[in-house]
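Task: sequence design from structure.
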């Protein structure tokens, strides 16, 4: 739905002239746009909220050698809710009271009448959402309605800001673009210097034959010696001889001591 058709509906529901309705509508959209450009969130009772959020840097791995780096982004998140109410303890934001005050000054009317006028404008927009009508506002953006497929009716609305506003919101990151980088550059640079280690088939066959011979030898020793061959293999001949020498030496010393004591 274009702005002209929306103004007609506002004029009909409010009983005000179209020119006055258009002027009030322009004031509201200007206040919202200006607030967002100044990094101020917008919360409107029983309608919805516009909040500025930031996407963090995202890294996507592509295959084994590349990564895609997506830069951070500031964007406007719109939440449509007919039950939303501003809280006094919230941080600074544009609310319905500030909009009503602006309309009161603009048309030189009391705040009560200005409040009725403002609520009528937002109610007309909500009626369009309920009827699944999209709304385009040239200086603000486009509201696209989405109807839930679930059994319970739940209306949701996506807000797409105009390019100029989106670019202003994302001021700090506009110059950053997604980039693809190699993330194994160090390995690729020195891969030629790293020797490639391979085991030859001839070596593997020889190793298998050696293992088979040792296995056959152990089996034969078990069968012939009742397992003594295995025990013998566990202790080398040198260690056995050393053990004998130490044992004989200790025995000789004990014998000499006994002779001296009783001689």
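Answer:
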């Amino acid at each position: 739905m274009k702005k002209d058709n929306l103004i007609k509906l506002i004029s009909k529901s409010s009983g005000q002239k179209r020119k006055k309705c258009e002027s009030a509508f322009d004031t509201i959209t200007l206040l919202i746009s200006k607030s967002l450009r100044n990094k101020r969130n917008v919360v409107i009772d029983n309608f919805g909220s516009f909040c500025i959020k930031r996407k963090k840097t995202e890294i996507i791995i592509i295959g084994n050698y590349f990564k895609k780096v997506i830069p951070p982004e500031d964007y406007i998140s719109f939440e449509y809710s007919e039950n939303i109410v501003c809280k006094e303890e919230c941080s600074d934001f544009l609310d319905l009271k500030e909009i009503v005050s602006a309309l009161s000054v603009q048309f030189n009317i009391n705040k009560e009448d200005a409040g009725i006028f403002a609520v009528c404008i937002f109610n007309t927009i909500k009626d369009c959402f309920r009827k699944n009508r999209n709304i385009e506002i040239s200086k603000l953006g486009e509201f696209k309605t989405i109807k839930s497929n679930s059994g319970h009716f739940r209306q949701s609305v996506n807000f797409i800001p105009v390019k100029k506003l989106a670019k202003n919101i994302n001021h700090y990151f506009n110059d950053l673009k997604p980039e693809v980088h190699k993330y194994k550059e160090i390995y690729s640079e020195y891969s030629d210097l790293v020797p490639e280690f391979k085991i030859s088939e001839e070596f593997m066959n020889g190793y298998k034959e050696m293992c088979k011979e040792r296995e056959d030898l152990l089996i034969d020793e078990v069968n012939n010696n009742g397992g003594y061959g295995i025990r013998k293999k566990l202790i080398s001949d040198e260690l056995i001889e050393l053990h004998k020498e130490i044992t004989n030496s200790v025995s000789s010393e004990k014998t000499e001591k006994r002779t001296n004591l009783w001689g």
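The first strand starts at residue 41 and ends at 44.
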